[in-house]
UniProtKB/TrEMBL annotation:
It is found in: Cytoplasm. The keyword Amino-acid biosynthesis applies. Its EC number is 4.3.2.10, 3.5.1.2. SUPFAM superfamilies: Class I glutamine amidotransferase-like. It catalyses: 5-[(5-phospho-1-deoxy-D-ribulos-1-ylimino)methylamino]-1-(5-phospho-beta-D-ribosyl)imidazole-4-carboxamide + L-glutamine = D-erythro-1-(imidazol-4-yl)glycerol 3-phosphate + 5-amino-1-(5-phospho-beta-D-ribosyl)imidazole-4-carboxamide + L-glutamate + H(+); L-glutamine + H2O = L-glutamate + NH4(+). One of its GO terms (molecular function) is lyase activity. Pathway: Amino-acid biosynthesis; L-histidine biosynthesis; L-histidine from 5-phospho-alpha-D-ribose 1-diphosphate: step 5/9. Heterodimer of HisH and HisF. IGPS catalyzes the conversion of PRFAR and glutamine to IGP, AICAR and glutamate. The HisH subunit catalyzes the hydrolysis of glutamine to glutamate and ammonia as part of the synthesis of IGP and AICAR. The resulting ammonia molecule is channeled to the active site of HisF. The gene is hisH. It comes from the Bacteria. This is Imidazole glycerol phosphate synthase subunit HisH. Keywords: Amino-acid biosynthesis, Cytoplasm, Glutamine amidotransferase, Histidine biosynthesis, Hydrolase, Lyase. It comes from Actinomadura gamaensis. InterPro entries: Class_I_gatase-like (IPR029062), GATASE (IPR017926), Imidazole-glycPsynth_HisH (IPR010139).
Length: 216
């Protein structure tokens, strides 16, 4: 067990920068395991769901290891989950690529679709517009840049606020490439980023440190 006493699983479902995510998280002094094992992913203090490539392929891989059930059961128990890149996209209701619609995990309503931008993929460093009170972006300046590689994203946030006001609405961070898209979400135990914190240098390291601070 690490000095921090925290255990993190990077979920291996056949897609994602597994080793780069593992190394980036391990630098913070926590125990990191890359595995597709159902019980290990459930038992870890924190779960990271990376993802690269096509939405449809990532969902197929996730379903093969019952990853959607792992995510759902963890969230039902208030256990932290962090999605990265396509690992964020698959948390939404559906993805539409090349005319093909694929069901996602339905943790949030919304559609992952092709960005409306003159140049795709959106590849490189970009600033984000984080809301006040964000835990993920705590200590980071407004002009901080993160590394993005994607052609698809969520351009409309569709989750309606709780009319009673009893449930705190998710904190949504936006970025722009052609038009606006969701760059990160903080929703209780479920957090996600469209960019790659593991490829974002010191800024990404600070964000991962911030997320790990929320993991009990």
């Amino acid at each position: 067990m690490s000095a921090s006493g925290k255990s993190i699983v990077v979920l291996d479902y056949g897609s994602g920068n597994l080793r780069s995510a593992e190394r980036a998280i391990a630098r913070h002094g926590v125990d990191v395991t890359v595995t597709s094992d159902f019980d290990a992913a459930l038992a870890a203090d924190g779960l990271v769901v990376p993802g690269v490539g096509a939405f449809e392929a990532c969902m197929a891989g996730l379903l093969k290891i019952k990853g959607e059930r792992i995510i759902g059961r963890r969230l039902a128990g208030g256990r932290p989950v962090l999605g990265i890149c396509v690992g964020m996209q698959i948390l939404f209701a559906k993805g539409v690529e090349h005319g093909v619609t694929t069901e996602g995990c339905h943790e949030w309503p919304g559609t992952v679709e092709r960005l409306d931008a003159p140049v795709l993929p959106h590849m490189g460093w970009n600033t984000v517009d984080a809301p006040s009170g964000s835990a993920l972006f705590a200590g980071l300046d407004a002009d901080t840049r993160f590394y993005f590689v994607h052609s698809y994203g969520v351009r409309t946030w569709e989750l309606e606020a709780d009319p009673s006001g009893n449930i705190r609405p998710p904190l949504v961070t936006w970025a722009e490439h052609g038009d606006r898209f969701v760059a990160a979400v903080e929703n209780g135990p479920l957090c996600a980023t469209q960019f790659h914190p593991e490829k974002s240098g010191d800024a990404g390291a600070q964000l991962l440190e911030n997320w790990l601070a929320t993991v009990d």
